[in-house]
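Suppose you are handed a protein chain with no further information: no name, no annotation, nothing but its sequence. What can you learn? This example shows the usual starting point.
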Amino acid sequence: MERDLKKAIQEYDKRFNNAAHNEGAFYAMDCYKIKEMSKGNTIDSLLYDAISNALKAGFMIGYRKAQRDARKNK
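A reasonable first move is to predict its three-dimensional structure. Written in structure tokens, the prediction is:
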């Protein structure tokens, strides 16, 4: 099954872009850190590394938030 990334991004924007809170938010500094952490000999390898790092970081940010929410709801 193929994921619909465009739909996922639209859902993220709908749910979180105008939210009154910043839980699970991404900040400009996050983008800068991803850029600084990413390495590559070519633009393609640099871009791949940056996307991979961003997905890993985003997953872990979401995972930690889910764990906090689960503890709150016990």
